[in-house]
Amino acid sequence: MRIDIITIFPEMIKPMFNESIMKRAVLQNLIEINVIDLRDYSVLKHNKVDDTPYGGGAGMVLQFPPFYLALKNLRNEQTHVMLTSPRGKTFNQQRAIELQQKQHIIILCGHYEGIDERVHDMVDEEVSIGDYVLTGGELAAMVITDALARLQDGVIKKDSYEQDSFHMGLLEHPHYTKPFSYEGKEVPEVLTSGNHKEIDRWRRYQSLKQTFLKRPDLLNGFPLDKEDIKMLEEI
Ligand code: SAM
Fold it and tell me: Which DSSP symbol is given to 173?
């Protein structure tokens, strides 16, 4: 997968590829990520890309021509263009799984008051990362890129992300590591028993419990089997 992020603040985004899993994913070519400066597509003096809003009002608006030219240059038939916007559909794990199949994604970052409305007509989807307003789309682009990158083959183990919260529809079970006992707090005995059937049962119960207590909405429509229903009755 290749992701192109178009922004007026590339330096905000680049550090995310200098550490940890994202750094390795890029170095090993498991994903290609390009951070593109919108100003490279400016049609005005001094690489200007914003102006005051027609009709008056506070703040600056990012102009249509630089986005038009950037998309004209970067987009091909396979490209999926995403515009970050508080009015977009809220991004979630299900959407990340669907987008995982795309060969090429372009993410557009707004800033200030937003982006000239004519850009909205050129995109495949408007995407929000939650019901709040950020100063710019850079954090949203980073969130989406991170969620997609970890699903690419070889970035993390498939077993690992398939167990993660939301992936199969439930929240994940709790984790523990050494030491076994600290300040009177101990790890559940079952996890050291070596009995994998019992460990799996405990994890399923805990996953259902976390979901029931913290995100009961996720259980609506979730395909519970007989054993799950029995476990839920125990909670
Ligand atoms: N005036 C806009 C409104 O009220 O809908 C808000 C513009 S916001 C200050 C500037 C840019 O930040 C947006 O164009 C978008 O790219 C990004 N942004 C802000 N909140 C976001 C969110 N919740 N999800 C995704 N992008 C967001």
Answer: P
Its domain, for residue 136, covers 2-158
- 80 and 11 housed in the same domain: yes
123 is in an annotated binding site: no
Structure tokens at 4: 């192109």
Ligand 1 — pocket residues by CB below 6 A? 84-87, 109-111, 113-115, 128-130, 132-137, 140
Cα–Cα distance between 147 and 152 in angstroms, integer?
10
State pTM to two decimals: 0.96
Please identify, among 98, 133, 158, the residue that sits at the C-terminal boundary of a domain.
158
**ipTM higher than the 0.95 cut:** yes
**Does residue 76 lie within any of the structural domains?**
yes
For residue range 90-99, what is the model confidence (pLDDT) as tens digits?
999 999 999 9
User: Whose C-alpha lies nearest to ligand 1, atom 12?
Assistant: 136
